[in-house]
Each structure stands twice: as structure tokens, then as C-alpha cells.
# Entry
Amino acid sequence: MTTIRLCFLYFFLIVALAGCGSPDGSEPTPAETLDDGIDLIVQGDYVVTMDAGGTVIENGAVAVEDGVIIAVGPAANIMSEYPAAEVLEGTNHIVMPGLVNGHSHAAMTLLRGVADDLALMDWLQNYIFPAEVEFVDAEFVRIGTELACWEMIRGGTTTFVDMYYYPDTIAEVVERCGMRAMISATVIDQRSPDAEDAGDSLSKGVGFIERWQGKNSRITPIFGPHANYTLDAEQLAATRAAAIELGAPISIHVSESPYELQYSQDTYGMTSILLYESIGFFEGPTIAAHVVWPTEEEIPILAERKVGVIHNPTSNMKIASGISPITEMLDAGVRVGLGTDGAASNNDLDMWEEMRLAAFLQKVDRMDPEALPATTVLSMATSGGATAVGLGDSVGTLGPGKRADLIQVAFEDVHHIPTYDVISHLVYVSDEQDVASVVVDGKVLMKEREMLTIDTDRVRTEATALAARIQAALAARNQ
Ligand SMILES: [Zn+2]
# Structure
């Protein structure tokens, strides 16, 4: 934008150079190369790059142009080398990569707190699935996803991997709010809000992927077969075949609960991951949510097949699904990221809480305080999470050439005093309220806690009104 504005300035000042640009797209004129600078610089007392060497730069800055990080280094150098149209000041702020929420059902924010304190299958079959068939339509998904994007941006999440219904509506919301997302078309063999059965949901998913592939670089359309207890082996294999045909990744719930384990054993004569391996399901990119109950035999398969495992500690604790062996999977070379799951089983979308609980859960389960240290957990929420979902080449670390998805975390609250170790505070102290600014693809989505792409008053009003209708309907039904 700056370049264009300056081009017009030069047009008037340097008439001899015949103005701004070549209408035919040929080589730029000398006037065009006389740019005043780059789009954005983000400063911080510390820049936590999350690169392979764990580089942390004191008094650092990140230079951004056309949505890409072009330089990371000491603020003094960046500021003198790159005049910028906009600078996000960094006093008492930490700069780090945006958080990657590897598993969510964003629109379920509208079912936040509608049914608590229940086991997974009771919760799903007797509360969530019926409520969804009754209440979920495109309007529900639009409002719920907007509410979720507001909450995620506020909390420093820049990328999320979603699985819900009406994926076109989800994609339209993401397009407007500016986040990065992998959006699954849910495939499930039962009547759902947007399909009748497995065949119907799969063919609708194909349409969604064809419509959105290559349309917006921030949006990756993928398939979301629900699980191996809501689809049979043939339907799972058909979904993978369609995904391979379209070059689309898959996101799926895997080995989440003891129920699933027993169901898989009873139905297929083997546990879930062995079943998936036996039908060639891992022959394309796979994001496996939960993986609470992998067997010793199954963990090496996940590593070898480069399956991205997404750990959802809050949901696993709240529904009492179990404690995932994250330490063993990381030791075996499995790619592991973090996710919130839907707000109906969490009940928020706070990735800082997931980081903290992931660490504490491994430590207490192993009775080993060295299990899952802060640096590993921070990686799971950023660089490691990005790799797990297949976006590691473009986001998750701060370095030249990466897409500019980054956040500023304010270190000025009483709970940050004193600061001995920045990484320790990011994992064990900071929370979503500390996030000050959020940038995705070089665009500022939140600046000093002001939301710039979401009309929060409208979303609050619409979400409250829709929830009131759901509550009234539930009350009438239960009379
Ligand atoms: Zn889920």
C-alpha cells in the first residue's frame, strides 16, 4: 500500500519518469524502486524466534514486507536499515511467533457450557450431536466462528485447524477476520447439520475443497473424517482416496477415549492406529487429534508416517479421556502440537492454558518434574505445532522468508515481576489477557488489545441473542 501511495507522490514530483508503474506489468520504472520503506516493524524487549537454535534477541525487531518476514535482528539495526510505514513499539513486550491451535471446533463457542461434567460418548451422543442437529445451521456457524476468531486473536492464536459443519461459512469468516486456518469439511456417517450420511458429507466435502483450493493463501481446505466409530473402514479409506486425489490433508480424531479403543478392537479386531495403518490411511498428510491411547506398537507408526499428533490436555482432562503419552511420542520422533478442542469441552480457546496443562499433566503423570519442559511446550504451540499440521515451512518461527504471523506479549502485569527467564514466563505465567498485538500474513489484526478486523459489539449481540434462543428451546424441551 505504501509503495502505491509513494508511487503517486513520485508521479507528481518526477514527471519525467512518467508516473507510477507499467500498466502492462513489465519491469518497474526507476521511480518505483525509490520506495520509502517496508510495511511493518514489530519491536520487543526480547524477540523469541523459536528457530532451531532457540535464538532470543534482546531489544530486537522483526521487519515485514508484503506479508513476509524479511529480517529479524537488533532493533537499532532493523530501524536504521528499514524505514517502515508502521511500527509496533516494543517496550515491555515480547515478540514471538503466533500460536498454532492444531485442533478446534470453532463454532462450538456457542455451545460453551451447554453440557458439562459428562463422559465423551454420553456427552457426544446424548447432548452434542442432538443439539447440533437441532440448532446448527450456516448462521450458527458464522456467528460461532466469528466469536471463536475474536477469542483466538485476543489470545494470540494466528493459525487454527478447524473441524465443523458448513465449512464454506467458516472459510468466509476466516477470510474476513484475517487469521490463517486449515478448515475441514466434516465427514460423518450420520445425519449432521449439513449432510445426511457419509456419502453425502464426503461429496459435499469434495465440493468445498474444490471451491477453496488456491483461493486464499491463508486458507487450506481439508477433509475432516470424524472418527473410526462414526465412519467404517471403507468410508475412511474412501475419504483418504478423495484427499489424495485432491492433494488435501486430513484432520481426524484418533485414539481419543477408552470407548474408541474398545470399539475398534471389537469391530476391527485391532486398535485404532493399527486399523488406519492397515487401510493405508496414513498415506497422505494426517493431523490426528488427541491420540491419548496409542500402544507401544503404534507410536513408531505415527513417527514413520509423519502423522501430526495434536494434544488437547484440557479437553482430555475435562471429559476424563485420559493422559496422552506425549513424552514417549516426542522421544520416538512423533510430531506433536497443541490444540484446544471445541469450547464445549474446554470451555475456552486459550492456548496458554493448554501449554501450562500439557507440561503439568506430563510431570504429575510421570512423577517427574523434568518431563515436558517449558521450551518443549512452547515449541508445541509454535514451531512444532506448525510442523505437526504441515505448515512448518511457512509459519511457526520468526526468520527471513517466513510468513509474518507473530504476536507481541505484554510483560507488564504484576505476574511478570520479576522476569528472570522469558521462556519460563511465557509458559508458566503469561495468559491470553497479556497478548497485546497480533499480526497474520503481515496484517495487524489486533493492536494494543484493539480488535481491528472483527466488530466485537455486533458479534457479542448476535451470539447472546442466538444463545438465548438455544436456551429457550432447551428449556421448553426439558419441561
Ligand atoms: Zn475434537
User: Anything to note?
Assistant: Residues 456-477 form the longest helix (22 residues). The radius of gyration is 23 Å. Residues 1-34 have pLDDT under 50 and may be disordered.
